[in-house]
Design brief:
Blueprint lengths: L4 H12 L11 E2 L14 E2 L4 H8 L3 E4 L6 H11 L5 E4 L12 E5 L2 E5 L7 H21 L1 H14 L5 E7 L5 E7 L23 H8 L7 H7 L15
Parallel strand pairs: 1-2, 3-4
Antiparallel strand pairs: 4-6, 5-6, 7-8
């Protein structure tokens, strides 16, 4: 990613390689506002082309090497690349604000900051998943009878379904359908998405109780069991927010 002299230098080193190993450079992605190098010798793509190119050529790694890029541009670029689920590395001189969880990788003697290395090992991730499956299964079994009673109470309190399903954004911006006990009247958001507030008239009588004690979130153990969510992790929010 980049078409400046810095990108040319990076591409040359990667394609030249060492120890009879080298990178096959698919092309260079042009960033608006960056000066194009006269020495550039690769196919040029736009940011909008990236998803198509990644799929077409089976791209495994993305290297970012920009010249005179400000932090806002870098963060915007990373947000664009994040959903592609491809290893992303960035030249240290491009990325001056190093934070926790970022790892330095040596590529043919040149240091690159690896932005996509997992915070935990594969073994730890597998253990975490096993705990998620076991804990959510046990939780669903234990809460089966209480959930039945709650479902009956919801049905009696107001017309509408027992469960409320809504699109949320998960890992790497992948959407999924979260499931909760319904705590609002049907068509509560007919005027558009809105955060709840104290004494919200959209919430049913039993809904206030369910929300107060977080009981409405018990069905989310099903999302954990399916792998949409984890017991420990960031709260998934709607794309609107």
């Amino acid at each position: 990613v980049g078409t400046s002299d810095a990108a040319v230098k990076t591409a040359e080193k990667l394609s030249r390689g060492r120890f009879n190993i080298k990178y096959d450079i698919i092309g260079c992605v042009e960033i608006p506002g960056e000066t194009r190098s006269e020495k550039l010798n690769c196919r040029i793509f736009s940011l909008d082309d990236m998803e198509r190119i990644i799929r077409k050529h089976g791209v495994q790694q993305i290297f970012i090497s920009l010249q005179n890029a400000d932090h806002r541009k870098i963060l915007s670029l990373l947000n664009h690349l994040y959903p592609f689920d491809v290893s992303v590395k960035i030249a240290p001189d491009t990325f001056s604000f190093v934070t926790n969880g970022i790892h330095l990788k040596d590529i043919y003697g040149e240091p690159f900051i690896d932005l996509t290395s997992p915070q935990i090992s594969e073994m730890s991730k597998n253990i975490k998943r096993v705990i998620d499956v076991a804990a959510s299964s046990i939780a669903l079994l234990i809460s089966a009878l209480p959930m039945l009673a709650i479902a009956i109470a919801i049905k009696k309190s107001s017309p509408g379904p027992v469960f409320y399903r809504q699109e949320r954004i998960g890992y790497r911006q992948r959407p999924f359908r979260i499931v909760k006990f319904r705590t609002m009247y049907v068509d509560a958001e007919k005027n558009g998405p809105a955060l709840t507030k104290d004494n919200d008239s959209r919430i049913t009588k039993i809904g206030h109780v369910l929300r107060k004690y977080r009981i409405d979130e018990i069905p989310q153990f099903w999302n954990v069991l399916k792998g949409d969510m984890s017991l420990v992790g960031p709260r998934p929010e709607r794309r609107y927010f």
